[in-house]
Amino acid sequence: MKKSISLIFILTLLLSLAACGSGGGKGESDTAAPEEGGAGIENIKTMKDVFAYDSVSNGSMDNVYAYVFEADGITYRAIAEMPDDVTEAYYALDVSDEKYDEKAKEMLGSLEVTKLENLTEMIPPQEELDKLVGKTGQDLLDDGWTFWSWDLESMEFGMYKGPFAYTVIFEGTLKNTDDFDEAEAGALTVNAISYDGIGDATVIE
């Protein structure tokens, strides 16, 4: 009888050990995979790391290159400075080449990311935008705002400021012409303004 009990005990112990072993294996398989798109935002060091994410927009100004992308619902802008030789080679690329993007990424991949900005958290709250109501069009222009679209019937204008786009409604009227001169909007008064998404975020101020 004692022999049978001992055998049962041994079998129970072996089954317990096996269960522990299989639990350990499951734990390893349940380990979260690396974030899709690359090494993860916190580990970005070069433009190659950034290129693992799909581009929202990208471009350059002089020797500064900017790449805008999204990760986990947040929009980021990575900025890198191009040495003179890279700048010259980059601008010499043929944009009509079907391998243009591939060649550009290969050329820029080793550049260090000098700044990684969370554009989403930089979006101004509506309370801040409301403070612009009553300002003139010239006030906005003097502060670096630019026009990119307009509807002279509704007096609704699309404007850029920094990396963002806005919808601005002005009070007053302008002569309806295809050749809109933004200087004509200088005397108009801002009636309402609202955030309208990411604008030309490749323009670095």
Compile the SSE list and pairings:
Blueprint: H1 2-29, H2 47-50, E1 55-61, E2 64-71, E3 74-81, H3 84-91, H4 100-108, E4 115-118, H5 119-122, H6 126-130, H7 137-142, E5 146-151, E6 156-161, E7 164-171, E8 189-198
- Structural class, by secondary structure, is alpha+beta
**Number of helix segments?**
7
Mean pLDDT: 83
Given the C-alpha coordinates, what overall shape results? elongated
What strand line-up does the widest sheet have? 1-2-3-4
One letter per element, helices H and strands E, the order comes to: HHEEEHHEHHHEEEE
List keywords for this structure.
four-stranded antiparallel beta sheet; alpha+beta; 205 residues
Q: What does the model show?
A:
This protein is an alpha+beta fold. About 30% of the residues lie in helices and about 30% in strands. It is built from seven helices and eight strands. The strands form two sheets. It has a four-stranded antiparallel beta sheet with strand order 1-2-3-4. A four-stranded antiparallel beta sheet has the order 5-6-7-8. Strand 1 and strand 2 form a beta hairpin. The longest helix is centred in the N-terminal third of the chain and has 28 residues. The chain is elongated and about 50 Å long. The termini are far apart. The N terminus is likely disordered.
